[in-house]
Amino acid sequence: MMQCCEENRNQPLLKLWIGPLPCVLLYHPDTVEVILNSLKNIDKSYTYKFLHPWLGTGLLTSTGDKWRSRRKMITPTFHFTILADFLEVMNEQANILVRKLEKHVDKEPFDCFLDITLCALDIICETAMGKNIGAQKNNDSEYVQAIYKMSDLIHHRQKAPWLWPDLTYLLFQGGREHNRSLKILHSFTDKVITEKASEKKKHDERKCDFDSNCEPSGSKKRRAFLDMLLNAMDNGGNKLSYLDIREEVDTFMFEGHDTTAAAMNWAIYILGCHPEAQKKVHQELDEVFGDSDCPVTVHDLKKLRYLECVVKEALRLFPSVPFFARTLSQDCYIRGFKVPKGTNAIIVSYALHRDPGVFPDPEEFRPERFFPENSSGRHPYAYIPFSAGPRNCIGA
Fold this sequence. Notes:
This protein has helices at residues 2-7, 29-36, 52-55, 64-74, 80-85, 87-102, 113-129, 142-158, 166-171, 173-205, 225-231, 242-273, 275-289, 298-303, 305-317, 349-352, 372-375, and strands spanning 14-18, 21-26, 324-327, 332-334, 337-339, 344-347. By secondary structure, the chain is an alpha+beta fold.
């Protein structure tokens, strides 16, 4: 798909069939904007249905009124001040990762992918559910293995049209492994939700203000995404059901750890390939932290301007989600071409980010592209590592 886009860079769009699905490939800022800026064409493509057994119809996979209501309800939980509370978890887990990586200093090269991925999983799990699963110290746990098995099975099935029918899929080993992993994942989430709901009930009975983050002793209580979901209400004052909450927690786990781990791994890989950029990052870190061992604060992060540009450039070259798709719920026109209802519009962000008209010498790693003076005036849909428009990543 990526090669096809590059070979047809000057074409406005490409039409193709993927199995039984009619598709168009979009990889220019103006054509991508038509789809992502639409308030009508917000339905995810057919292949997202393979996420339904695990994630249900949560924020990632829902559509229509349910998506609008759920998005409005959950958005406040991603407010910057709330996300800042998660920094304590990130510091704790990052310290574990650093201690693991220190053991390899001055030794042979090694693959750090798993170490970084497990760190991301620990962070996401604790911020999502308030549960420390210790993946970095025990990556053989049943839940950790089930997450990776399920993710692999879903990605494989999405690329294999002959496995799309449910009855056919269950005839293969992958289908049986899918059901086994699904049972483990849902059992774990159900148990955590039950425990958290029980804790909340006890707090309420003691007339402890749950939203104040206070224990009876006066000590600060760390809140997780799940805690906030247990308190969330829709416009009618209705709370989410257990199933609704499980959908969102599982979605947060799936979407959060995988994409974050990919971004971190690519950023580290690119820095390893470019010593001059690595040196600049090192200098910036020294300027901000010096010899201090104090935890990183939000104030510190704001000072890491060059590192931020490095991460953005890494996401330009290697977006965590290299392509994603919408199924059109109504006809639309793209550069004068009528694209009919039911077509799958595939936004190829990997190719979009390599448009030489927007990013000269697109294959070169240049963090300076994201200096304010260089990114000013850039098309708002030319760089979309977190999607864009009304259905962008809620944490972006």
